[in-house]
Amino acid sequence: MQVKSKPSLGLALVPIIVLITLLGANVVVFGASATDGPNQIALVLSAFVAGLVAWRAGTTWSTIEGSIVKSISSAMGAILILLVIGSLSGTWLMSGIVPAMIYYGLKILNPTIFLFAGCMVCCIVSLATGSSWSTVATVGIALLGIGKTLGIHEGWIAGAIISGSYFGDKMSPLSDTTNLAPAMAGTDLFTHIRFMMYTTVPTLIITLIVYIAAGFMVDLNPVAGDTEAVLRVIESNFNLNPILFVAPALVIFMIVKKIPAVPALLVGALLGAVFAVVFQPEIVNQISGINDNFFRSSGMAIMKAMSSTTSIVTENQMITELLTSGGMAGMLNTIWLILCAMMFGGAMESCGLLEVIAERIIRFAHSTGSLVASTAATCVFFNLTASDQYMAIAVPGRMYADTYRKRGYRPELLSRTLEDSGTVTSVLIPWNTCGATQSKVLGISTFAYAPYTIFCIVSPLMTILMAYLNFKIPKAEENPQTKSA
Description:
2 strands, two-stranded antiparallel sheet
């Protein structure tokens, strides 16, 4: 990458200011529908401004274009997962897997403990699988249906699901971010996980206390909370065979065994299609609209469920909305948003605009607390601008590793800060790959669930607080290997 001159801080901030202005205007004008197109245009226009700044700094168009293509390429894994999740949600609805989860969940859970229990379930599943995305796309969808039926506000439900899912994303040795952070900081995986416990366990305790308290205080919607009506509709429309739970159990097992997410989820989607044909022939005919040829009906229903919007029509409109899936097509708007976000991130990366801003932040970091706070702020900044969770860990990790080493800190302090701020805040940003994905999978806008995602909000604050209190801050001389070297 050949750049004739390094852009100034003022120039580097211009695309950021343009983006914030356009996104803010979109929220005011379009509200929750801003992600249906206006935010995508805002990101493209901001990318154009970033390209102009890069060009003015001496970067060629081919370099800018190459950076954009590289940035988009880095998100292709997330896009493939999104498409497969769309298919999985369709076949799991048609087969009765999700309705069965909702049915038995309603039998077991009550509104008072739901948020606490839902968060804990997601903690366990994500810790076992190492994947927040898979957890939200499987048990998360079922928990959302249960919570809505119980009459709980959807923001609280999504917040509990995401909080639990991202706990596992941080702490599981199977998680890609949990492996990436120590690699960037220069420490080993299990030292990193042990050191994260000092901030993550208190954060989880605070999160669970909030959800327990919320369970006693949240107002219930009596119309949505007609659980008996939902139970009757599910019973009358679906064959609730226990074999249905083989599919989610198999998906979790495959991910635990480190089978990549795309093939694991695709197997789950196909198994859902098989279960639909075997256990739900009437639902298959309803979706296909064909009653005289079951072979043809099955093929059409499976393709519809995997590719486009399908609904199980009932006499209750609320329940019909609950039993609706968008398939792959339902994910296309989110993919559009991700592509535009990565375009902006690539343009900003093309001549180092993001690094210029981050380097200026480092200059103000003198104490331990300010250094950790600066690192956390940089991670959030990259989640906002590069729109990618991995970029928010990898780039600050590379930038700060030498600074932490020169100031006498062990690399675990950096790796913990990267996870406490880079991993969990990505889901709070609508145009970030994580925020866009979870919003689409759950069908709830990022702004609607963000205030209730307690774990993700408290986590970066906890790591900064620990640093300012100088609690569990490892110095290089505390490392036995350093002493003996």
